[in-house]
Design goal:
This protein is mainly alpha-helical. Helices cover 45% and strands 7% of the residues.
Length: 407
C-alpha cells in the first residue's frame, strides 16, 4: 500500500463539535477539503489546493462578488461598502457584515444575478437552508435588510424585500444567566489572585460587556470630593453612533481584587503574555476558564445577566439597573430580570396576605439596602477594612452574595 505524506492538512472543530478538514498554508487563505481523509473526494480537493487551482477559483469568486456588473447583487454590495452607512459602522461590524454579504454573493453565483429580481421568497429559501443555526440565519436576514435599506435610501431600488422576511425562532432566554452554585463552582476552580477570578469579579460587580471589561484600567478611575473612586467610561458598543457614558462606584468586594499586585496598570485584565486582551481573545480565554470549571454552558455575557438579576432581586427599579448596565430602554432589562421581578411581586403579594386585613399595607419584601463604602485609591486599598455587611467572595465564603450589588 502506497503511503503519502500530506502537508498543510489540519482539522478544526467548530462550536457544534463538527470536525472539518482544511488545507492551510502560510500566506494563503485556508481551503475546505471534503472528507474523510484518504477518500477520493479528499484527494481531488487536496490536489486542487496543492496546485493552486482552488486558490485561483476562490479569488475569482471573491473578485466577482466585490465588483460585478451594474445592476447585479455584487455591484450593489460594492456601492454599499463605499457608502457612509457602511463606513461609519464599527470596524468589527463592518467585517462581519462584509463577510456575510460576500458569502451570500458567492453561493450559487448569486452575486452575478440582478438584485432587482430578488424576492422575499428567495431570501426565505436561503434562510431556511440555515435552519440548524437560526441565530446566524437571522443575522443574514438583518444584513440583507441593511443592504436594501441603503438601496432604497439612495434610489437604487424601490422596496426592501428582506424587510418582509420573518426571523426564525431562537432561544428567547438568550445567554444563560449564572446561578449562585455556578459562581461558586467557578471560584473553587480558580483561586483568588488569578486572572480568571479577577475577570469574574469585574464582570459580576460592574455588569458590563466583555468589550468594556478588557479596557478597564486605572486610567478610568477617578476620585470624587468625598474620596470615593468611580470607574468612568464610554461603552464600546455603539460608541460611534449612540455613545453611552457611565460612572460606576467600586464596591468593597471589587476593591479587594483590585488591591492585588498582579492586577495590570494599563488594563486590569492581562493575558498570559502580559498584554491587554482583545475582546475576542478574552472571550476565548474565558471560555477555557469556564470549561476548566465544568461550566460549558456558561459565558462571560451570562454574568452581565446575573448582575442585573441580582440587582432586581434586591428590589432595584429598572431605571436603577439601567444606570449600571447602560441599556437605554427597559426591554432588554426586563428580559434579563423577569424571573427576579416575578419573585419580588410574589413576595410582595404574599406579604400583604400575611397581614391582618384592617392593617394591611404595601410593604417592601426586602430590607433597606446598605450604602456603599468609601472607595480608596490603589495605594490604600490593601489596608481597607470591609464592614461586616459586606461578605467577601473569598476562600472562606466563595459563594456570591447578592448584598454586594446593593450599592
Amino acid at each position: 500500500m502506497k503511503m503519502m505524506r500530506l502537508k498543510y492538512v489540519v482539522e478544526d472543530t467548530d462550536r457544534h463539535g463538527n470536525v472539518r478538514i482544511y488545507y492551510r498554508r502560510a500566506g494563503h487563505p485556508k481551503i475546505r477539503l471534503r472528507g474523510p481523509v484518504g477518500s477520493r473526494e479528499f484527494l481531488i480537493d487536496y490536489q486542487r489546493a496543492e496546485s493552486g487551482e482552488a486558490y485561483k477559483q476562490k479569488k475569482k469568486a471573491k473578485e466577482k462578488s466585490q465588483t460585478g456588473r451594474p445592476g447585479t447583487l455584487g455591484w450593489l454590495c460594492v456601492q454599499y461598502f463605499k457608502s457612509p452607512m457602511y463606513r461609519q459602522l464599527d470596524a468589527s461590524t463592518r467585517r462581519t457584515r462584509r463577510s456575510i454579504l460576500e458569502r451570500f454573493c458567492q453561493n450559487h453565483g448569486d452575486g452575478e444575478k440582478p438584485y432587482a429580481k430578488l424576492l422575499p421568497r428567495h431570501l426565505r429559501i436561503r434562510r431556511d437552508e440555515m435552519i440548524k443555526t437560526p441565530a446566524a440565519a437571522n443575522t443574514m436576514i438583518k444584513t440583507m435588510r441593511q443592504l436594501f435599506r441603503f438601496a432604497v435610501r439612495y434610489d437604487l431600488h424601490d422596496t426592501n424585500p428582506a424587510a418582509q422576511v420573518e426571523y426564525l425562532t431562537t432561544n428567547a432566554e438568550g445567554y444563560h444567566s449564572w446561578s449562585l452554585d455556578e459562581i461558586e463552582a467557578y471560584e473553587k476552580a480558580h483561586p483568588f489572585g488569578s486572572m480568571a477570578r479577577l475577570a469574574l469579579a469585574l464582570a459580576l460587580y460592574t455588569g458590563q460587556r466583555r468589550s468594556d471589561l478588557v479596557r478597564f484600567g486605572w486610567k478610568d478611575v477617578r476620585e470624587d470630593e468625598e474620596g470615593v473612586l468611580w470607574i468612568g467610561f464610554t461603552q464600546h458598543k455603539g460608541r460611534n453612533r449612540h455613545p453611552i457614558t457611565l460612572e460606576i462606584p467600586i464596591i468593597p468586594e471589587l476593591q479587594r481584587y483590585l488591591a492585588d499586585d498582579r492586577v495590570g496598570d494599563a488594563t486590569f485584565l492581562m493575558s498570559e503574555y502580559g498584554k491587554p486582551f482583545t475582546a475576542a481573545g478574552f472571550g476565548n480565554r474565558f471560555r477555557k476558564w469556564c470549561d476548566a470549571a465544568g461550566l460549558g454552558h456558561c459565558s462571560v455575557h451570562g454574568l452581565r445577566k446575573a448582575a442585573a438579576a441580582r440587582l432586581a432581586e434586591l428590589g432595584c427599579s429598572e431605571f436603577e439597573i439601567m444606570a449600571i448596565t447602560g441599556h437605554q430602554t427597559s426591554k432588554e432589562v426586563t428580559r434579563y430580570t423577569k424571573g427576579a421581578s416575578q419573585k419580588l411581586r410574589a413576595a410582595s403579594a404574599l406579604a400583604k396576605l400575611s397581614l391582618p386585613r384592617e392593617t394591611a399595607k404595601s410593604v417592601p419584601p426586602f430590607a433597606t439596602r446598605p450604602g456603599s463604602g468609601t472607595v480608596l485609591p490603589r495605594n490604600r486599598l490593601k489596608n481597607i477594612e470591609i464592614s461586616d455587611k459586606w461578605q467577601p467572595v473569598g476562600e472562606s465564603n466563595p459563594s456570591f452574595q447578592v448584598e454586594n450589588l446593593a450599592s
